Amino acid sequence: EKFKDGLTKTRQSFSDKMNDLVARYRKVDEDFFEELEEVLIQADVGFDTVLELVDELKMEVKRRNIQESSQVKEIIVEKLVDIYESDDEQITSLNIQDNGLTVILFVGVNGVGKTTTIGKLAYKFKQEGKKVLLAAGDTFRAGAIEQLEVWGKRVGVDVIKQNEGSDPAAVMYDAIQAARSRKADILLCDTAGRLQNKVNLMKELEKVKRVIEREIPGAPHEVLLVLDATTGQNAMIQAKQFKEATDVTGIVLTKLDGTAKGGIVIAIRKELNIPVKFVGLGEKMDDLQPFDLEQYVYGLFA
Ligand code: GDP
Questions:
Q1: How far is Cα 95 from Cα 82, in angstroms, rounded to an integer?
Q2: What is the annotated localization of this protein (predicted)?
Q3: Measured from the CB, is residue 69 less than 6 Å from ligand 1?
Q4: Is 273 annotated as a binding residue?
Q5: What is the mean pLDDT of each run of 10 residues along the chain (302 residues)?
Q6: Does ligand 1 lie within 6 Å of residue 137's CB atom?
Q7: pTM, full prediction
Q8: In what order do the strands lie in the sheet with 158-160?
Q9: Cα→Cα distances 177→97, 134, 152, 197, 201, Å
Q10: Is the ipTM of this complex over 0.95?
Protein backbone atom coordinates (compact mmCIF):
# COMPACT_ATOMS: atom_id res chain seq x y z
CA GLU A 1 0.00 0.00 0.00
CA LYS A 2 2.80 2.38 0.94
CA PHE A 3 4.44 1.62 -2.34
CA LYS A 4 1.26 2.38 -4.23
CA ASP A 5 0.65 5.64 -2.36
CA GLY A 6 4.19 6.80 -2.96
CA LEU A 7 3.77 6.33 -6.68
CA THR A 8 0.52 8.27 -6.86
CA LYS A 9 1.94 11.18 -8.82
CA THR A 10 3.67 8.99 -11.37
CA ARG A 11 0.68 6.70 -11.65
CA GLN A 12 -1.81 9.51 -12.14
CA SER A 13 0.26 11.34 -14.68
CA PHE A 14 1.05 8.15 -16.52
CA SER A 15 -2.42 6.68 -16.57
CA ASP A 16 -4.00 10.02 -17.49
CA LYS A 17 -1.74 10.24 -20.50
CA MET A 18 -2.27 6.62 -21.45
CA ASN A 19 -6.04 6.91 -21.18
CA ASP A 20 -5.96 10.05 -23.25
CA LEU A 21 -3.85 8.31 -25.84
CA VAL A 22 -6.11 5.28 -26.00
CA ALA A 23 -9.17 7.53 -26.28
CA ARG A 24 -7.71 9.44 -29.18
CA TYR A 25 -6.31 6.46 -31.02
CA ARG A 26 -8.69 3.56 -30.88
CA LYS A 27 -6.61 1.73 -33.45
CA VAL A 28 -2.91 1.12 -33.13
CA ASP A 29 -0.84 2.88 -35.80
CA GLU A 30 2.51 4.65 -36.29
CA ASP A 31 1.25 7.91 -34.79
CA PHE A 32 0.01 6.09 -31.73
CA PHE A 33 3.45 4.61 -31.14
CA GLU A 34 5.12 7.93 -31.68
CA GLU A 35 2.96 9.57 -29.05
CA LEU A 36 3.48 6.63 -26.74
CA GLU A 37 7.23 7.15 -27.03
CA GLU A 38 6.71 10.75 -26.00
CA VAL A 39 4.68 9.75 -22.92
CA LEU A 40 7.35 7.28 -21.82
CA ILE A 41 10.19 9.73 -22.37
CA GLN A 42 8.34 12.35 -20.34
CA ALA A 43 8.06 9.83 -17.51
CA ASP A 44 11.89 9.60 -17.57
CA VAL A 45 11.96 5.99 -18.67
CA GLY A 46 15.09 6.92 -20.64
CA PHE A 47 15.54 7.44 -24.34
CA ASP A 48 17.32 4.20 -25.26
CA THR A 49 15.01 2.14 -23.11
CA VAL A 50 11.94 3.72 -24.67
CA LEU A 51 13.13 3.02 -28.21
CA GLU A 52 13.84 -0.59 -27.35
CA LEU A 53 10.58 -0.98 -25.50
CA VAL A 54 8.48 0.51 -28.29
CA ASP A 55 10.26 -1.60 -30.91
CA GLU A 56 9.39 -4.70 -28.96
CA LEU A 57 5.82 -3.51 -28.51
CA LYS A 58 5.44 -3.04 -32.23
CA MET A 59 6.67 -6.55 -32.92
CA GLU A 60 4.41 -8.03 -30.29
CA VAL A 61 1.40 -6.12 -31.57
CA LYS A 62 2.07 -7.44 -35.06
CA ARG A 63 2.68 -10.98 -33.87
CA ARG A 64 -0.55 -11.10 -31.90
CA ASN A 65 -2.40 -9.13 -34.54
CA ILE A 66 -3.62 -6.55 -32.03
CA GLN A 67 -5.76 -3.71 -33.37
CA GLU A 68 -7.13 -2.02 -30.27
CA SER A 69 -4.86 0.50 -28.57
CA SER A 70 -6.34 -0.37 -25.16
CA GLN A 71 -4.71 -3.80 -25.39
CA VAL A 72 -1.24 -2.31 -25.73
CA LYS A 73 -1.24 -1.32 -22.06
CA GLU A 74 -1.05 -4.93 -20.94
CA ILE A 75 1.87 -5.64 -23.22
CA ILE A 76 3.73 -2.64 -21.83
CA VAL A 77 3.49 -4.18 -18.37
CA GLU A 78 4.79 -7.51 -19.67
CA LYS A 79 7.68 -5.87 -21.47
CA LEU A 80 8.67 -3.71 -18.52
CA VAL A 81 8.80 -6.77 -16.32
CA ASP A 82 10.84 -8.52 -19.03
CA ILE A 83 13.39 -5.73 -19.08
CA TYR A 84 14.21 -6.47 -15.48
CA GLU A 85 13.92 -10.19 -15.52
CA SER A 86 16.22 -10.57 -18.50
CA ASP A 87 19.01 -9.23 -16.29
CA ASP A 88 21.06 -11.73 -14.35
CA GLU A 89 21.82 -9.60 -11.37
CA GLN A 90 18.39 -9.21 -9.97
CA ILE A 91 19.81 -8.74 -6.50
CA THR A 92 17.60 -6.37 -4.63
CA SER A 93 18.27 -7.53 -1.09
CA LEU A 94 21.20 -6.25 0.97
CA ASN A 95 24.34 -8.26 1.60
CA ILE A 96 24.00 -8.61 5.38
CA GLN A 97 26.50 -10.75 7.30
CA ASP A 98 25.02 -13.48 9.49
CA ASN A 99 27.92 -13.19 11.90
CA GLY A 100 29.89 -10.09 12.67
CA LEU A 101 29.73 -6.56 11.44
CA THR A 102 28.10 -5.44 8.19
CA VAL A 103 29.43 -2.14 6.86
CA ILE A 104 27.32 -0.11 4.43
CA LEU A 105 28.77 2.94 2.76
CA PHE A 106 26.46 5.66 1.42
CA VAL A 107 27.54 7.86 -1.46
CA GLY A 108 25.79 10.58 -3.43
CA VAL A 109 25.75 14.33 -3.89
CA ASN A 110 24.38 16.78 -1.31
CA GLY A 111 20.65 17.14 -1.03
CA VAL A 112 19.65 13.83 -2.57
CA GLY A 113 18.47 12.45 0.77
CA LYS A 114 21.51 10.54 1.96
CA THR A 115 21.21 11.45 5.64
CA THR A 116 17.49 10.76 5.63
CA THR A 117 18.05 7.38 3.99
CA ILE A 118 20.67 6.43 6.58
CA GLY A 119 18.21 7.37 9.32
CA LYS A 120 15.42 5.35 7.74
CA LEU A 121 17.62 2.29 7.28
CA ALA A 122 18.92 2.58 10.84
CA TYR A 123 15.31 2.52 11.97
CA LYS A 124 14.53 -0.51 9.82
CA PHE A 125 17.51 -2.49 11.16
CA LYS A 126 16.70 -1.49 14.72
CA GLN A 127 13.16 -2.73 14.23
CA GLU A 128 14.69 -6.05 13.20
CA GLY A 129 16.51 -6.17 16.54
CA LYS A 130 19.94 -5.32 15.20
CA LYS A 131 22.48 -3.13 16.94
CA VAL A 132 23.21 -0.19 14.67
CA LEU A 133 25.89 2.51 14.69
CA LEU A 134 26.23 5.52 12.40
CA ALA A 135 29.53 7.01 11.18
CA ALA A 136 29.54 10.76 10.47
CA GLY A 137 31.80 10.61 7.44
CA ASP A 138 30.63 13.88 5.89
CA THR A 139 33.06 16.13 7.69
CA PHE A 140 32.97 18.70 4.91
CA ARG A 141 29.47 20.14 4.73
CA ALA A 142 28.54 22.47 7.58
CA GLY A 143 25.77 20.92 9.64
CA ALA A 144 26.07 17.43 8.18
CA ILE A 145 27.28 15.89 11.45
CA GLU A 146 24.50 17.54 13.48
CA GLN A 147 21.93 16.46 10.97
CA LEU A 148 23.04 12.85 11.28
CA GLU A 149 22.92 13.21 15.06
CA VAL A 150 19.32 14.41 14.85
CA TRP A 151 18.46 11.20 13.01
CA GLY A 152 20.53 9.17 15.48
CA LYS A 153 18.49 10.59 18.38
CA ARG A 154 15.21 10.15 16.55
CA VAL A 155 15.91 6.49 15.88
CA GLY A 156 17.86 5.82 19.07
CA VAL A 157 21.26 4.85 17.68
CA ASP A 158 24.69 6.32 18.42
CA VAL A 159 26.72 8.39 16.01
CA ILE A 160 30.51 8.13 15.88
CA LYS A 161 31.95 11.50 14.88
CA GLN A 162 34.90 13.83 14.93
CA ASN A 163 35.06 17.56 14.36
CA GLU A 164 33.97 19.20 11.14
CA GLY A 165 36.91 19.30 8.75
CA SER A 166 38.60 16.18 10.11
CA ASP A 167 39.73 13.27 7.92
CA PRO A 168 36.72 11.10 7.02
CA ALA A 169 38.98 8.04 6.82
CA ALA A 170 39.93 8.61 10.46
CA VAL A 171 36.22 8.82 11.36
CA MET A 172 35.68 5.46 9.65
CA TYR A 173 38.58 3.92 11.52
CA ASP A 174 37.13 5.15 14.83
CA ALA A 175 33.67 3.98 13.90
CA ILE A 176 34.88 0.47 13.08
CA GLN A 177 36.71 0.21 16.40
CA ALA A 178 33.62 1.44 18.22
CA ALA A 179 31.40 -0.99 16.30
CA ARG A 180 33.71 -3.85 17.27
CA SER A 181 33.93 -3.02 20.94
CA ARG A 182 30.17 -2.51 21.16
CA LYS A 183 29.49 -5.64 19.12
CA ALA A 184 27.36 -3.76 16.62
CA ASP A 185 25.72 -5.65 13.78
CA ILE A 186 25.43 -2.82 11.29
CA LEU A 187 27.56 0.23 10.65
CA LEU A 188 26.01 2.82 8.34
CA CYS A 189 28.58 5.28 6.99
CA ASP A 190 27.78 8.73 5.67
CA THR A 191 30.23 10.36 3.23
CA ALA A 192 30.68 13.83 1.79
CA GLY A 193 28.67 14.68 -1.29
CA ARG A 194 30.25 17.79 -2.72
CA LEU A 195 30.60 17.51 -6.44
CA GLN A 196 32.27 20.87 -7.05
CA ASN A 197 35.61 19.21 -6.61
CA LYS A 198 35.07 15.86 -8.18
CA VAL A 199 38.65 14.63 -8.13
CA ASN A 200 39.00 15.30 -4.40
CA LEU A 201 35.66 13.74 -3.61
CA MET A 202 36.54 10.58 -5.48
CA LYS A 203 39.97 10.41 -3.82
CA GLU A 204 38.32 10.82 -0.45
CA LEU A 205 35.90 7.99 -1.22
CA GLU A 206 38.78 5.75 -2.26
CA LYS A 207 40.63 6.46 0.99
CA VAL A 208 37.55 5.82 3.10
CA LYS A 209 36.99 2.55 1.29
CA ARG A 210 40.60 1.49 1.72
CA VAL A 211 40.45 1.99 5.48
CA ILE A 212 37.26 -0.06 5.71
CA GLU A 213 38.69 -2.83 3.49
CA ARG A 214 41.87 -2.98 5.53
CA GLU A 215 40.06 -3.22 8.85
CA ILE A 216 37.41 -5.71 7.74
CA PRO A 217 38.14 -8.04 4.85
CA GLY A 218 35.14 -8.17 2.52
CA ALA A 219 33.82 -4.79 3.67
CA PRO A 220 32.20 -2.51 2.75
CA HIS A 221 29.49 -5.08 2.16
CA GLU A 222 27.40 -2.59 0.23
CA VAL A 223 28.11 0.74 -1.42
CA LEU A 224 24.72 2.37 -1.86
CA LEU A 225 24.40 5.31 -4.20
CA VAL A 226 21.58 7.64 -3.22
CA LEU A 227 19.84 9.40 -6.11
CA ASP A 228 16.99 11.92 -6.15
CA ALA A 229 14.25 10.73 -8.52
CA THR A 230 13.00 14.28 -9.04
CA THR A 231 16.25 15.29 -10.74
CA GLY A 232 15.65 13.05 -13.74
CA GLN A 233 18.52 12.88 -16.18
CA ASN A 234 20.82 14.60 -13.65
CA ALA A 235 20.47 11.55 -11.48
CA MET A 236 21.59 9.43 -14.42
CA ILE A 237 24.67 11.58 -14.90
CA GLN A 238 25.55 11.37 -11.21
CA ALA A 239 25.10 7.62 -11.31
CA LYS A 240 27.51 7.30 -14.22
CA GLN A 241 30.11 9.40 -12.42
CA PHE A 242 29.89 7.47 -9.18
CA LYS A 243 29.90 4.17 -11.03
CA GLU A 244 33.21 5.15 -12.63
CA ALA A 245 34.66 6.23 -9.31
CA THR A 246 33.68 3.35 -7.07
CA ASP A 247 32.02 -0.06 -7.01
CA VAL A 248 28.42 0.87 -6.45
CA THR A 249 26.47 -2.24 -5.38
CA GLY A 250 23.01 -0.73 -5.28
CA ILE A 251 20.89 2.36 -5.63
CA VAL A 252 18.47 4.03 -3.28
CA LEU A 253 16.10 6.19 -5.26
CA THR A 254 14.63 8.89 -3.04
CA LYS A 255 11.66 11.25 -3.39
CA LEU A 256 9.79 8.97 -5.74
CA ASP A 257 6.69 10.33 -4.01
CA GLY A 258 7.52 13.82 -5.24
CA THR A 259 7.71 13.13 -8.93
CA ALA A 260 5.50 12.14 -11.82
CA LYS A 261 8.59 10.77 -13.53
CA GLY A 262 8.89 7.45 -11.75
CA GLY A 263 9.99 5.86 -15.00
CA ILE A 264 13.52 6.72 -13.97
CA VAL A 265 13.62 3.44 -12.05
CA ILE A 266 13.47 1.59 -15.36
CA ALA A 267 16.09 3.81 -16.98
CA ILE A 268 18.53 3.31 -14.12
CA ARG A 269 18.17 -0.43 -14.11
CA LYS A 270 18.40 -0.74 -17.86
CA GLU A 271 21.11 1.77 -18.64
CA LEU A 272 23.40 1.36 -15.63
CA ASN A 273 22.85 -2.24 -14.70
CA ILE A 274 22.90 -1.43 -11.00
CA PRO A 275 20.00 -2.79 -8.96
CA VAL A 276 17.64 -0.33 -7.31
CA LYS A 277 17.47 -1.77 -3.78
CA PHE A 278 15.29 0.76 -1.99
CA VAL A 279 13.01 3.62 -2.85
CA GLY A 280 12.23 6.63 -0.68
CA LEU A 281 8.54 7.47 -0.61
CA GLY A 282 8.44 10.31 1.92
CA GLU A 283 10.29 12.11 4.69
CA LYS A 284 9.30 9.95 7.64
CA MET A 285 11.22 7.16 9.33
CA ASP A 286 9.19 4.39 7.77
CA ASP A 287 9.02 5.88 4.29
CA LEU A 288 11.66 3.60 2.83
CA GLN A 289 10.61 0.50 0.92
CA PRO A 290 12.58 -2.36 -0.60
CA PHE A 291 12.20 -2.06 -4.33
CA ASP A 292 9.89 -4.61 -5.85
CA LEU A 293 9.64 -4.52 -9.63
CA GLU A 294 6.31 -6.22 -10.06
CA GLN A 295 4.69 -4.06 -7.42
CA TYR A 296 6.20 -1.05 -9.07
CA VAL A 297 5.09 -1.84 -12.62
CA TYR A 298 1.62 -2.99 -11.59
CA GLY A 299 1.46 0.06 -9.31
CA LEU A 300 1.93 2.28 -12.33
CA PHE A 301 -0.96 0.77 -14.17
CA ALA A 302 -3.30 -0.01 -11.29
P1 GDP B 1 21.52 14.82 2.02
O2 GDP B 1 22.10 16.19 1.80
O3 GDP B 1 21.78 13.95 0.84
O4 GDP B 1 21.94 14.21 3.29
O5 GDP B 1 19.94 15.03 2.02
P6 GDP B 1 18.90 15.01 3.24
O7 GDP B 1 18.83 13.67 3.85
O8 GDP B 1 19.19 16.15 4.12
O9 GDP B 1 17.53 15.27 2.45
C10 GDP B 1 17.27 16.45 1.72
C11 GDP B 1 15.78 16.73 1.78
O12 GDP B 1 15.06 15.72 1.08
C13 GDP B 1 15.20 16.73 3.19
O14 GDP B 1 14.29 17.79 3.29
C15 GDP B 1 14.50 15.38 3.30
O16 GDP B 1 13.43 15.41 4.20
C17 GDP B 1 14.02 15.18 1.89
N18 GDP B 1 13.85 13.75 1.55
C19 GDP B 1 14.74 12.74 1.66
N20 GDP B 1 14.22 11.58 1.20
C21 GDP B 1 12.96 11.86 0.79
C22 GDP B 1 11.90 11.06 0.18
O23 GDP B 1 12.00 9.85 -0.09
N24 GDP B 1 10.74 11.72 -0.11
C25 GDP B 1 10.58 13.05 0.13
N26 GDP B 1 9.42 13.61 -0.19
N27 GDP B 1 11.55 13.81 0.68
C28 GDP B 1 12.72 13.24 1.01
A1: 25
A2: Cell membrane; Cytoplasm
A3: no
A4: no
A5: 78 86 91 94 87 92 92 84 62 87 96 97 97 96 95 98 96 98 98 78 90 96 96 90 90 92 84 89 94 78 64
A6: no
A7: 0.91
A8: 158-160, 132-135, 186-189, 102-107, 222-228, 250-254, 276-280, 288-290
A9: 18, 12, 19, 30, 24
A10: yes
